[in-house]
Amino acid sequence: MLRGIWPPLVLALVGYLGWRDLRGLDLHALHAITRKLSNPDLLGLQLLALVPVLAMCGYDLLLNRWLNIRLPIRRVLSYAWPACTLANLVGLSGMTGSGIRYLALSREGVAGRTIAVYAGLQLLAVPLGLGLLCAAALVVSPQLAIALPLPRGVPQLLLAGFAAYVPAFFLLTGSGALHRRFFHELPPLTVGLRLQLTLASFGEWALALAVLGVALALAGVQPEPEQLLLAFALAATAGIASQVPGGLGVLDGTLLVILRGLDYPPEGVLAGILLFRLSYYLVPALLGLVLGARLFVPDENLFVRVLRRAEAHPVLGVLRLPVELIGAIGVRLLGYLTFLAGLVLLVSAAYPTLAERSAVLHSYLPSTVMEGSHLLSVVAGVVLLGLSRGIAGQVRRAYQLTLFMLLAGALLSLAKGLDYEEASYLLVLAAVLYTRREHFERLAYPLLSRRNLLWLLALLAALAGYAWLGAALYGSEAWAASLLKFSPGEHTPRFARSLLAVLVTGAGMLGWLAFAMPRPRLVLPDAAALAEAKTFYSTHGGHEFAHLTLLGDKYLFHTPARDALIAFGSIRNRLVALGDPAGAPAALEGAILAFRQFADRYGCVPVFYEVSEANLHLYHDHGFGLFKLGEQALVPVADFSLRGKKRDDLRGAVNRAQREGLDFAMLDHPLPEATWAELRAVSDQWLGTKTAEKGFSLGRFDRQYLSQAPIAVVRRGEHIVAFASLMPDYRQNQELSIDLMRHGVGAPPGCMDFLFVRLLEYARDAGYAWFNLGMAPLAGVGETKYARPSERLARLAYEYGNRFYNYKGLRSYKEKFQPVWRGAYLAYPYQMSPHFLLLDIAALIAGGYRRVFTSA
Questions:
Q1: Which residue has the higher pLDDT, 371 or 354?
Q2: Residues 539-552: pLDDT tens digits?
Q3: Model confidence at 25, in pLDDT bands (50, 70, 90)?
Q4: Cβ neighbourhood burial of 800 (10 Å; 0-12, 13-18, 19+)
Q5: Residues 523, 400 contacting (CB under 8 angstroms)
Q6: Which helix or strand (DSSP H or E) is residue 103 part of?
Q7: Fewer CB atoms near the end CB (10 Å): N or C, the chain?
Q8: 25-34, 290-299, 397-406: lowest mean pLDDT where?
Q9: Residues 394, 328: contact at Cβ < 8 Å?
Q10: pLDDT at 112 over 60
Q11: What's the confidence (pLDDT) of residue 2?
Q12: Model pLDDT, residue 22
């Protein structure tokens, strides 16, 4: 729990402290600082900022040589640059960079153990340079009087902790006892290699410090070297300790608090930090996206192999999450950059146009064009904010609209005020986006998701921020200004018009996104489609749930080759398949992949409910997590009889039933109306007033459905007192399953035991190998302390929840038939919570969320 709340807690604390120091910020002065920056200065800063990134690549060059991988330098740099720059920007404690390296080296055919050592050592080497800077900062910190809002000694303790990492690295990676105990999976490093890695890391961090110093100097802030060293060391350690991706907000806020404590102006400090972020983080990451484009969407087979190797290795098992994110990280980052593009347009529109540029434009363009361009640039900014979620979700329509809006935004930026800086960013982003065009294949993304909620909050915050910025720049005049005042010097009415455009466009975008998001066209099968499905099962084979397709409450998904069939239900944005795909064994893997791609195309969640143990590897290989639902009871019927001591209970139940005058019979279709009326009466008595019919994975009383399978009845005299419908599996008599099973008020005790015994004998005589008594929910789930936390939690329900559902009683009842227990599993996308998915599936079975908890 602490791990989940720690990053936002630190971010909120630093954000509060930074906001407190920015209360006197002069936005006009900040704008003036950024406008005074010359192009040569900005270009020089950017070139300088690329040098520490090259220094980061030194890890890869050293390890490539030491491990005898011997790739050409150019090829090493082709994956090292994206790995370093995206690790800088995204963070995840450096795991993103290691994941990219793991994927890239797998493409080169490098052995899994070698890749593990490579990525692990790079990860261990990164903090070395920061540790040396922290040691130097400890030396100078007593000489500097900096008031920090922290308990006395905490900054020094933080610096000392990172400084101690350097000797710890040398001790743990040598050939001594500590290495053998803690890092035995890594080969011992030579002293020379350890020194070289330390030098490479120090070069990276020292050069980053130099970039920060130059950025601050360009903004008019020139702290003493000792002050800059201490501020950077504390900010970098705080960013890493916060676990916030890229230290975003924490590193920046800490720098702001420290430098403001040294009485440097907030406008210059903030401008310098923004320059540092743009030059050292953002621009190199954009280059990394272009250079590493081929890494971010790998081919399916390679991706699966890499995941399995990463998961299996003890050193890099923790890399599974970052490696799985590589396939989406490039496009997701483009989504963030698109959001940033919208912010750039809004901030640019909020500030007055520079007088000299406005004068030049007025020589060539009429004022109506300039005013219209200003208003339309605001609209473009809001639209880009709205489209950014679609870009991150890889939606094709969002890509097309975003590309158009970026190009239009660049043109409007030039037309409204010759803002070539903003136009350049938009054009570069459009070019990078165009290089990734083949990866936008989805038609929609889920509207009801945690990620979408966060995006919505960010969108609303951006729009509110625009209104706040205008109020800060123009005061109360912005709200009362006449919307119809048009002249070059009338900035306040221009902002008022743009604010109205922001509100209208924002509301329009939200409405459009809510109603224009396409959903998969799902149509329940008609009688002809159900007959075709039954023919398919008879021809290609089915499974224990195949017969439930004939209920007609599930949609049908055929593979392109029509060699596999999946029956599935839909609730919210979940597409829930019942059982494994049906078809030839060779077609199952392709069917799983095709169904996942179909769901993914519409932003839906693919789920497979009650899949068998035999096919678990197929779901695992395609990125599904697995949750054990319980165990199915299968009775081998070939040698079933009532002889022997173990069958005393069953034999006694049959004898009692015969004394009660019970008789068993299999009914032949078509049934007379009187028989249907008796079956309906028994069913209604069983349902009573507390239970409603269900569906999806459970049969229901439906004459059309029941007439397509055998029905067994128990009569007492001339009256039916119990019945059961059966489900063939369409697999050449492999397995016969119980479906609808109901008894009336006139059924004596032991009636259902008698029915089951006779059904087992019927299955034996009909040549079936197994009789499926159904599942015992949560049986065999989470039994060991090594089970997954979600399954251990389910075990508690099995042990202590029997007053709500008779878990143990059901298992015990089926046990007397001496079955073989076979696990049933839920296969779901690994990042989802199985508990929430199970609630969705329960609602799908019950016919709605309300009916999960009530009988109505």
A1: 371
A2: 888 888 899 999 99
A3: low
A4: exposed
A5: no
A6: helix 95-107
A7: N
A8: 290-299
A9: yes
A10: yes
A11: 46
A12: 62
CB 836 within 8 A of CB 449: no
Token output for 734: 């492999």
Calpha distance 313→315 (Å, rounded): 6
Long-range contacts for 176-185 (Cβ within 8 Å, ≥24 apart)?
185/116, 185/117, 185/120, 185/314, 185/315
Rounded Cα–Cα distance for residues 170 and 516 (Å): 58
- Round to whole Å and give the CA distance between 384 and 400: 12
pLDDT of 566 reads 94
What is residue 821's three-state secondary structure? Answer: strand
Give me the chain's average pLDDT, please. Answer: 80
Please confirm whether the linkage preceding 670 is cis (ω < 30° from 0).
yes
Overall pTM surpassing 0.70 (yes/no): no
Closest CA to 83 of 113, 59, 116, 117: 59
Note the pLDDT of residue 198.
92
Query: CA–CA separation, 298 vs 288, rounded Å?
Result: 16
CA–CA distance, 616 with 580 (Å, rounded to integer): 10
* In contact, 548 and 697? CB cutoff 8 Å: yes
The answer to whether 477 touches 491, Cβ cutoff 8 Å, is: no
Which of 552-566, 708-722, 784-798 is least confident?
Answer: 784-798
Is residue 626 within 8 A of residue 827, CB to CB? The reply is yes
- Greatest alpha-carbon pair distance for the chain in Å reads 109
Where helices occur in 688-832 by DSSP H, the ranges are 703-706, 751-765, 789-800, 807-815
CA distance 135 to 69: 34
Distance CA 121, CA 97 (A): 12
CB crowding 168-179: b at 16 or more within 10 Å, else e: ebeebbbeeeeb
